[in-house]
Amino acid sequence: ARRIWLTRHGQSEYNLKSRIGGNSPLAPAGEVYARCLSDMLIDRVPQDGDQRVPVSVWTSTLCRTIQTARYLPFFKLRWKALDEIQAGTCDGLTYDEIAQLFPEEFAARQKDKLRYRYPAGESYLDVIQRLEPVIIEMEREKESIVVVGHQAVLRAVLGYFMAKPLESIPTLDVPLHTLLELRPRPDGTMDFEYIHMS
Ligand code: G3H
User: Which keywords does the record carry (predicted)?
Assistant: First the structure.
């Protein structure tokens, strides 16, 4: 009874200031989520007879996912391919600042969020492409996996498992402080359950 759990990192200092990108640590509420995540997951690891099914935790290389995973008592792996979408010259800005400083860029992204590539950064299509090896490993893996990721990256992962049209991926809802449980069905499709922080 293998599970795949997906979660964004806990609220970060940049989330609090509405800044994108960067590599900020968790804010106090994010730290609370990190502890809560560990409790929620330990309760949910399926039993196989009297044995708990092994679990590994995959994070990005950014400190907010590593901090969110730090209380999980499982083997951990860091994937560069799970890092958040690169915002290039817009990294560290708020959306208001981007609209003021680079109005053409802001408008171009609103027009085509899937294909828009930040100057010196990435598009959603770029992210979807670089996630391919991670998704192949997720499908191949026999153990249960906890993926602690980022909004754009998890939109792409979720879009793949939910077989969503590409165009819908950049606006899929992946809320903070919510754990998403995926349970593979025998026919290869998945059941999904959203678990909110208790
Ligand atoms: O840049 C970081 C955000 O998590 C991505 O959100 O693609 O909706 O701007 P966005």
Answer: ATP-binding, Nucleotide-binding
